[in-house]
Amino acid sequence: xxxEIHVSGHAKDVVEQTLPGLVDSLIASGITAGDxxxxxxxxxxxxxxxxxxxxxxxVSRPLVAEIEALRADLTARGITRxxxxxxxxxxxxxxxxxxxxxxPLVVLDSTDPGQVLAAIDGDAEAGGLEQTVLVVASKxxxxxxxxxxxxxFEAAWSDLGIDPAGRIVVVxxxxxxxxxxxxxxxxxxxxxxxxVGGRYSALTAFGLVPTGLAGVDVSELLDEAEATxxxxxxxxxxxxxxxxAAAIAGRTADAPRRxxxxxxxxxxxxxxxxxWIEQLVAESTGKNGTGILPVVLLPVSPEVDQxxxxxxxxRLVDDAVHFRxxxxxxDEVLISGSLGxxxxxxxxxxxxxxxxxGINPFDQPDVESAKEAARGLLDGRPxxxxxxxxxxxxxxxxxxxxLAASGTVAGVLDALWAQLSPTGYxxxxxxxxxxxxPQLAGLRELVAADSGRPTTFGWGPRFLHSxxxxxxGGPAEGVFLQILGSGDVDLEIPGRPFTFGQLIAAQAAGxxxxxxxxxxPVVTLTLTDPxxxxxxxxxxxx
Length: 542
Fold this sequence. Notes:
Blueprint: E1 3-7, H1 9-25, H2 27-32, H3 41-48, H4 56-76, E2 81-85, H5 89-101, E3 106-108, H6 113-121, E4 132-138, H7 144-159, E5 168-172, H8 177-185, E6 188-191, H9 205-214, H10 218-233, H11 240-249, E7 260-265, H12 273-285, E8 293-297, H13 302-305, E9 311-316, H14 320-326, E10 332-337, H15 339-357, H16 367-380, E11 389-391, E12 394-398, H17 409-417, E13 425-431, H18 443-451, E14 455-459, H19 467-473, E15 478-485, H20 500-517, E16 522-527, H21 530-541
Parallel strand pairs: 2-3, 2-4, 4-5, 5-6, 7-8, 7-9, 9-10, 13-14, 13-15, 15-16
Antiparallel strand pairs: 1-10, 11-12, 12-16
């Protein structure tokens, strides 16, 4: 078996009460057959054009030879460094696939000017712009982050006298604006199945082209996924997708549903899978005031040491021996399997969870609001909102003046935590260069301990294409901490009237405005120099 799942404690009780109904409803076989009516009449139109991922393995097989041929051609020309410009599902799945295979892939899913410049410049070990191919991945063909990255790379190559036509590979839906413009420019274009949503696209061209060009054996990945297809297609109590869906979305008759999902990686060979699961589950389920909030954890995170009553731990483990040892952990869900199997099972389980929750798992009705707010700020260019106060090199802005009454960062954070309900959560959103200050992610552990509630961490603006949907459409229980940088580095976006620095600032301000409009408390800390101000921020969080 390519995927194993073990449930115990509360999760076992939930599965025992929920699983019979799922088996009787024939949802597993219904998904496999492409039944768009499984999620109700309101979701049928959307579902009818979003179930192509069920056939992704067979549809993607012919891509393998094309990808391998293009990789051989690029390698023969000395082009060995692969940069991926993509957002959401177009970047998170390739990041996991490449990291698990131990293959270098530069993922550019940010508009931070420093991170964009680093992706363009490269380094001595991996090579510079002369050795680089850029994969531009966008389903709609109009994603502002990927369009901006493409423009910057085109200009950089032109400055070196290199024709971008031989250096850019496009992955998009057929007929998109990018499809047409890329072919006109002479770029190599791979079109993906338009009947697959971005977060379900791991086994389509969006997941396979960048990773295959980087050197991953994508045929093996498809083999792993194919080995699991029969297991998830049958209406049987042993179906791992049915068991997983029941464990994360079901409830018992005498207890509230655990609506938060703690994802712990414990010894597995798969690298970064919780980040992909986070996007898939949060964006698929966080709507209509309900949802499942994934929380990416370490084995030693505060939420693991003292698990809140509304958090279900799912532990990702590796081999069967490790699996049996961890069966002693009470009240957890333990899963193991190959990467291909994990991708398939989680996709099925998430779609099934949508039916359990009574929502459409294929739309994202609240994602566009933050984009619209950012566009409005870029068009209008209003003056920045003055800070409530400045302390040292940190500017503090708050959605409610009462949050800033203390006049200290530590006091502001305490006031923000005080807004938490007994079932609330904290969301940290870092709009900074994650390649320059990766240690900032460690703030999550301190905040979780200090606030006493489950805490998520997202790099901006990439989380806007994933958990951003849950923040607005899910339960109104979140409090939000934005961290921004205001360094001296900026970069023009060719053909645009704004820079990368202005774009990321507008994205952060736009999202904050939408959150406030939804009644969510927001604190924004702007760091003059994130690399040196992180320590002070850590001290305040303690």
